[in-house]
Amino acid sequence: MVAQVTSSLVKCLLIILGLISVIVNIVLICLNSSRLPKCHLQVQDSIAANHTDHSMVFADLTPLEYLAVRDYMWNQKDLKISHSAVAKPSENFLFLIDLLLPKKQDALNYLDQHGPKPQRKATVVVFFGQFSYLKEYEVGPLDGHLHHRDVTKERYNMETLPFTARTVSIGEYVELFIFLELQVFQKLEKELRESFGYIPRKRNLSPFEGMPRGLKAGDRKTWISFFRDESGIYIHPVGFEVLINHESKNSSDWSVLKLLYNGKYFDTLESFKKAYETGQLTKIVYKAIPNYASLKPRKKPTGLSPQQSYLQGKRFSVKNNQVIYMDWTFAFGLSSLTGMRVFDVRFRGERIAYEISVQEAMSVYGSNTPGMVLTKFLDSSIGIGRFAHELVRGVDCPHVATYVDVYRYIDTNVTHRFRNAICVFEYDVGRPLRRHFSDFFHNSYGGMTNSALYIRTITAIGNYDYIWDFIFYQSGSVEARVHATGYISSSYKIDGSLKYGHQVAQNVLGNIHTHFVNFKVDLDILGVSNNFLTKDMAFDEVELPWTSERKVKVPFLVENQTRTEKEAALRHGTKTPRYLHVASNQKNRWGHERSYRLQLTSFAGDHLPESEPEERSMSWARYKVAITKHKDNEPTSSSLYGQNYMWDPVVDFSKYIEDNESIENQDLVAWVTAGFLHIPHAEDIPNTVTVGNGGGVLLRPHNYFDEDPSIHSPDGVYFVPGSEHDCEYNKVACLEKDLCSPTLEPYTYNGFDGVMNFEG
Length: 760
Known about the structure:
There is one protein chain. By secondary structure, the protein is mainly beta. About 15% of the residues lie in helices and about 35% in strands. The strands form four sheets. The protein has a 16-stranded antiparallel sheet that branches. Strands 11, 12, 13, 14, 15, 16, 25, 28, 31 and 32 form a ten-stranded antiparallel sheet that branches. It has a five-stranded antiparallel sheet with strand order 6-7-8-9-10, covered by helices on one side. A hairpin with a 2-residue loop joins strand 11 and strand 12.
């Protein structure tokens, strides 16, 4: 009996242990099944294998090349170039070293005909303070024994460039800040303390300068407005401005010409002090206020926004300065002056564009205070690419993007590295590229995500941040686009201010202004022999063939070819054809010219009237699109010297059109201007948002192919009733097979390493 009981107990224990084992195994299986594999960060091998070195003819200079050019120029004893990073205006200063792009025909011979590789050369700009002029040099070959050649005459048809056309260097800013301290702040310490809370070395006033610096060629007289010294200074104006004459290269000769306090002008500091003491003006009384300009969130962040990952690895590859993505290949670079640019843009091996590049960003302001009433900013004159700092992972670009460092030599004495200043990523834009649900007949669904490749940089030029995107779509389209954010420029609100904007904070006027951005689009559609075609619609009255009861109006196609540069200069404010094409002489399967269409996105304000003397420096903004014959000696629409010599610019874009050359069967360049009118409003505080504030140009194939090339994309989805869960043509139905947990690079940021330093 005892044995039977013992046997039964053993059996029960074995059964219980067996059940426990089964349960444990089930739990372990469930736990292990929930542990997803890590997503791949590496590039798919089949893509990386296709890189070539041909893109290097467009590559930015390397640190070693910058160093070699700098040392070579420093060693030219006859040039007497200062080695100081803060050289005074009276000294000779090597301001800029940048890549000299090869001549187009030389590059094409190398890329397409196995010709010799063009020599790498650099452009060098020297401010000769000792001699009161500016010069440009060509230095090269960079892979051999260096030589230099003065190219000022060749480029600008003048032996030297005017000394007052130069950009204000950091060395000159140091002199200006010392001048302000000694000649303004120290002499007005009491007035500034009572009015603006100024306390030397504790609570300062921050300067912000208006441009241009005067009213005529040769002027260097700058209105400087002052702001509370807090983050977001640009929307903290205090109502105090001074006009400084700094034309002389010796700061001992500089002077204060005018002063503005609370809307009232004074000729001297002494007259202002007297009026202040005797009560002949309305005093501004300092009050401490919360910093409404701070970008620190008003509430502590509590979560994360959606983040992106690549389930099967990156479908693009970046090597040196070349990007390969699906059917696209292109080279890229970042000019210190003009910013982002791409070259040798090919789709399925055929070159679509030789160059797509940013040229200029310009703003014209309205105000009744002097710091803004004259202001017309031309950003390439201080450097658009110069202010491309490190991008913030997960905010400026997806965390999993590929990041690229850039190197620059501008207004310095050493080459500066800017980590992660360019990012490249593939991104689903959030709506299908194409789709159709067939409801009536042959029930089916066909669609495709709009996953595109972005190459991006962001330039923080003073108050504004510009987000520059070049976007490559699987339909064969490519887009150059900009969005503006950052801080508005503002002025102190006085009587009459509301004519020029809206009040956005206490005593703060957000000034009305325009944004214009110019792109160079050098399309080569099946070669360099192209034409400019336009298409539009009109209505025609026709009879109905089956009845004489009535006639009807129907739209019909209007096609034209534009034959000269003047005909192809399409001005803002005029009716222009809606379809603009750069076309080859070859035809597609259906007998139409293979072409690419220029499609603008723009909400531009009115351009500055041509009667204004400053307008010539921004004459490119007269045109929505201007088509010119390609010339190597017409490389840019603006110049380094446009801002400070607006009245007699060394580059006047309108001259490119005046010779009115034929554009039939020629190598054509489209100069495209987009932008938006900005009337600041309360929601621009603290920052302008990107939504609705941008523009650009989309290059779309138009009869270039025989069908939409995206129909061959691996991203396509198709199913019919009964096959909804079949993975063969519907990969998203079996997405769980490719699920993975994100793999992220460590978060780092070193962007503050490259900020401007005004320490003397």
